[in-house]
Description:
By secondary structure, chain A is mainly beta. In chain A, about 0% of the residues lie in helices and about 55% in strands.
Amino acid sequence: RKEVEQDPGPFNVPEGATVAFNCTYSNSASQSFFWYRQDCRKEPKLLMSVYSSGNEDGRFTAQLNRASQYISLLIRDSKLSDSATYLCVVTLSGNTPLVFGKGTRLSVIA
Amino acid sequence: DAGITQSPRHKVTETGTPVTLRCHQTENHRYMYWYRQDPGHGLRLIHYSYGVKDTDKGEVSDGYSVSRSKTEDFLLTLESATSSQTSVYFCAISVQGGGNTEAFFGQGTRLTVV
């Protein structure tokens, strides 16, 4: 079983839509959780960290459910510029290597 | 961009030849990583380093070696390139601050083995 699993999509949504991505992880010892964004032919960049209490950054909301080993990302009022691949990432702690899901591709359509 | 540069950015090489990719950072971060990214597999860890001359294997280390003789440079070597090593290679560093850790990536190296 892959350590981090995501629905690969693609998710094709109209501008202004709300879209949610989910991710599950297999290692219950995982301590840190992130969503990264990767544009086509570019390097991944941190979108946001994910905390147990849930956290919000503008139109983006991330949630963590440790009991179910489940992470989610909600994007409200989608923009064309949100089109990208979203990578779910976990790590045991601190500087231990990041473990990536395969990514979920989002296309926001005008 | 956290001062990470990868070189070369693109390379085409022949099967059986040795290839070295370089990752250079300017901010003296201790932890550095090499990943490869392939369609259908996502990013997979090849090797990582936690200090000068301190390295460890990742998930897909076979066919690769690394060296870190100084803090700023982390080299990835394909001793004898194979077509299965055609991929996009990303170097990353991890930065701790504010109680959290963030990874920054180089722009990637597109390697084609023919």
